[in-house]
Amino acid sequence: MVEIKKCIDTYALVEIYLGNEKFAEYLNVDFIINDLTLAEFYGVLLKEYGLEEAELWLKKLEGYSIQVDKETLIEAIKFRYENKKQNISFFDSVGDIFSVKNGGYFVTGDKEFENLPNVEFKKK
Description:
Elements: E1 6-8, H1 10-17, H2 21-24, E2 31-34, H3 35-49, H4 51-61, E3 65-66, H5 70-82, H6 90-101, E4 105-108, E5 119-121
Parallel strand pairs: 1-2, 1-4, 2-3, 4-5
């Protein structure tokens, strides 16, 4: 049986960083991170915990990071526009579209995604 990749978003990465046991399982599965999500996570760590932590986690995760192509970015803009009432961020829009295009599930706890297809929704 082929395991479907988990595309981890910033919400889940922060929970992993904080040691939340509910999210620790994602470190033991086949996961990917798009490079925009990795950059957003870096920014969160930089702001909250400083440059050393941001750099440390960048080094830990960069091997799992995949570049986002222009077509995915455009589709994400359309997705965000079509779902403007949910106030979905650009980063999350990219994450969702990216995961679908890469045959995976978007792992998040962001409430806007709770009932969307191809999403593995997990609360804190």
